[in-house]
Amino acid sequence: MAMYADLYADQGSYFSTFVTVGSNDLNVNLTGYSARGKIRKSYTSSTSYDFVVTIPNAVGGKLMLELDSATTAAIKPGRYLYDVEITQTSTGKVTRVVEGQIDFNAGSSSNLFSTQIFTVNAAYTLKVTDNTVLCNCVSNAISITLPAAAAVPNKIFTIKKIDVSANVVTIVGTVDATVNPTIPAQWQTVKVQSNGVNWYNIS
Questions:
Q1: Distance between alpha carbon 37 and the CA centroid of its chain, in Å?
Q2: How far is CA 131 from CA 40, 134, 156, 193, in A?
Q3: What span, in angstroms and rounded, lies between the C-alpha atoms of 35 and 10?
Q4: Domain residues of the chain, as ranges?
Q5: Phi (first) and psi of residue 104, to 5 degrees
Q6: The pLDDT of residue 2
Q7: Among 2, 78, 181, 189, which is 20 to 30 Å from 63 by CA?
Q8: 73, 12 in Cβ contact below 8 A?
Q9: What's the rounded Cα separation, in Å, for the pair 54 and 103?
Q10: If phi over 0 gives left and psi between -120 and 50 gives alpha, with beta otherwise, what is residue 110?
């Protein structure tokens, strides 16, 4: 039976914790095992987030669970469910060893709701820490690549063309079921938001 433990993390911050697998002060030897862990809003949620799970002390039965700051920034504040499983390499046998709830606390400096603005004049891939991108296409057309919607639920990006040239801004991704929409005119703005599955134009 899996151990139950509640966890707490700050949105936009690196998270790590250790878990010892065992019972009655007898630790499980994890030599020959791999481990994985997932977070979901509910048991039926299609959107999930992965822990980075390592085994720093196999003989002592210790697992380390980690989330980088980009991952925690992409998770909306609130309470989620998680579990961690180990897999015996030789047999493929999977065992759930820990489960519980994890609370993500909002922070005033959360990257998800960053208000920074900057200009690009070449191809650029958006990061969760970005917000408003001004595109100067005077020398060439520019492509702005969206991250996967599932990786940044609720995230909003604002993309604006600021030059008068005929070069267009191409948004690489699918927005409102349109693949790679473009921004052709100076001062035209497209604001997109992820619902955790797709990107939508909310301009």
A1: 14
A2: 25, 10, 7, 11
A3: 23
A4: 3-105, 114-201
A5: -105, 120
A6: 77
A7: 78
A8: yes
A9: 22
A10: beta
CATH class of the region 114-201: mainly beta
Comparing C-alpha atoms, which of 74, 197, 178 is closest to residue 126? 74
Q: How far is CA 171 from the centre of its chain?
A: 20
- By three-state DSSP, how is residue 149 classified? helix
Question: What pLDDT digit, counting tens, does each position of 24-62 carry?
Answer: 567 889 999 999 999 999 988 888 999 999 999 999 899
CB atoms within 10 A of CB 33: 21
pTM of model > 0.70? no
**Domain spanning 3-105: which superfamily?**
Immunoglobulins (2.60.40.10)
Distances (CA, A) of 135 to 16, 45, 63, 111, 114: 37, 36, 45, 21, 18
Displacement of CA 79 from its chain's centroid (Å)? 16
Q: On the CB side of 181, how many CA atoms lie within 13 Å of its CA?
A: 18
Q: Which two tokens stand for residue 94?
A: 């999977």
Token pair, residue 64, equals 């380390």
Helix (H) or strand (E) holding 72: helix 69-74
The whole-angstrom separation of Cα 202 and Cα 58 is: 49
Q: What is the β-pairing status of strands 132-135 and 117-120?
A: parallel
What tokens appear for 112 in the block?
């998800």
For residues 138 and 159, the answer to whether their CB atoms sit within 8 Å is no
> What average pLDDT does range 187-192 have in this prediction?
95
